[in-house]
Amino acid sequence: MLFYRLTTFFVTCIVFTVMSVAMSVVALGAGKPNIIVIMADDLGHSDLGCFGGEIETPHLDQLAAEGTRFTNFYVASPVCSSSRCALMTGQYPYRWRLSSYLDSRQHNERRGMAQWLDLKAPTLPRFLKNAGYATGHFGKWHLGGQRNVGDAPLITEYGFDESLTSFEGLGPRVLPLMNPFDGSEPQPHAMGSGGLGRGEITWMDRNKITPRFVEATMEFIKKAEKDGKPFYVNLWLDDPHSPFFPSAHLRGDGSKKDRYRSVVMEMDLHLATLFDYIRGSEVLRENTLILFMSDNGHEQGAGSGGPLRGYKTVIYEGGIRSPLIVWGNGLLTQEAKGRRNETAVFQAIDLVPSLLNIVGVEAPSEVVFDGEDFSSIVLGTTMTQERKAPIFWRRPPDWPGPANNPLPDLALRDGAWKFLMQFDGSRPQLYNLDTDIAESTNLAAEHPDLVAKYRNVLGEWNAAMPKDGEPFVEARTFKEVVPTARTQQVDWKYTLEPPPENWFQNDFDDSAWTTGKSGFGNGGLPGNPPMGTTWTTNDIWLRREFELPVKPEGELFLYVYYDESPEIWINGVFATKTTGYSTGYTPLRITSEAAATLQPGKNRFAVKASQTTGGQYIDVGLVQEIQ
Hints:
Layout: H1 11-28, E1 34-40, H2 58-66, E2 68-70, E3 73-74, H3 80-89, H4 105-110, H5 124-130, E4 134-139, E5 162-164, E6 173-178, E7 187-188, E8 201-205, H6 209-227, E9 231-236, H7 256-280, H8 282-287, E10 288-294, H9 317-320, E11 324-327, E12 339-341, E13 346-347, H10 351-359, H11 375-379, E14 391-394, E15 410-414, E16 417-421, E17 429-432, H12 448-463, E18 478-482, E19 490-495, E20 514-518, E21 540-548, E22 556-562, E23 567-570, E24 573-577, E25 586-589, H13 592-595, E26 601-609, E27 618-625
Parallel strand pairs: 1-9, 1-10, 2-12, 3-13, 4-5, 4-9, 6-8
Antiparallel strand pairs: 2-11, 6-7, 10-11, 14-15, 15-16, 16-17, 18-27, 19-20, 19-21, 21-26, 22-25, 22-27, 23-24, 23-26
């Protein structure tokens, strides 16, 4: 049986790469190389001037002229969250139940997706931080903390020292105002983020957000320089994702294509500030590696994939092949500068092991990457490298295509060959990308031996991954730390009248509130009907005191039975916000900030449940997972 999971690196590649990096670094005496990973959002493969596009991007073109352009580089998915997961972990995103973009809690559940990237996942910034790097993330996140998912981990919990993000992440963030420049008021475009809390929020015009992320990146780099630390930075832009709101003087005829073009031009201009700063410092110029790519293909009707078939959301080339520019004045070989590499075939999962090797940091022994070490390709020591395994893709579950002509579910690339099929192995498509980059001539009928081989290989790989659409239910056992009403009556203080703004703080005086009990069959709130029946149709505010004999160790979860989207605080600090209703007790992750407040002795829950016409119920406790 074929088994394509990476377990070892190419020894020869490691030797060459370490020698190359060591010579550069030792010559400068500057320590470990710095890394800046820039990711555009929905940029087409053929939009930049240096990739044959018609949009004026002189600063990225200059970066490419001084570095290497890779034309056979891929991302792991044709949509955003899953693509970003691979770049963070070096593993296929399907392993972590991130097969598409993260959305609302309910939509994620319907698609069998996780709500955020699991904190157990290996992450490049965590490895680098542990090795002494200053680590920062500035820009789009979309790996948890979007829409109504306010209990996701903060970005800094994945190994970053600092972060600044937009409306698809938590922590400090800048949220966009869409300014039509027609005299009307700018409209917020936050998709629920403004109500999630958990970080300072700044509103600004959409066209000012990219320069703010660049500015934050440069502030972080200067601090790392002052502290004498090497740095790793994610600069993940929202541009040129729609809606397109460039500066007023760049809106052209107002068409979608014109606005898109202007957003790309402005993105290029804003990045120039960072590029010039790196070039202007002798140490940074010789010891910094910059990578620029897109998270997936272009949006239909906006960007361009050139000759490539497809676009964002599909696993044809236009959805998954990304422009990649690698710049490193003192790190790349002389031969690599100005090179257009059309032979090396690699993917975002390969960048994590490659970058770790370049900076001389080892991942923990228990971590197994799906990606392979392509550091010699990245630095230009070699032009091509044989893969140990093909590259694989799965179609996002949201875009099956028309019933009478479905989009392919699975794909792989092996050398020049690209193979696609449905989950059941039907409708095979085989293309030779060396001669047919447009995927226009299906050669499956002419190569039955290859079809049989790739059908088995692709089917085996897919069978090893969690299936899309299956309910995401983990087999978990919990023990109660703070009892729920399942086992005893619980006293609550509550009010149906809007309380003062500080009502959820521990020192708030709730002596005038009504006392009620919550318990199955033992009385509830208000009027003490049994728990789970209608007890109010109003907004209700509740507080409950509980005691802990010792400070709990390990990760805790709120254990909640609820209706109508309650918000919950612990000791005056936001803990979680739910949506809809539960059909039983549900473990909900506690924000790290709230968990830190738990101490031996008295602690307090505060809960707000919204108005409903059908009645509501609430029960809250704390549980700990039994390993």
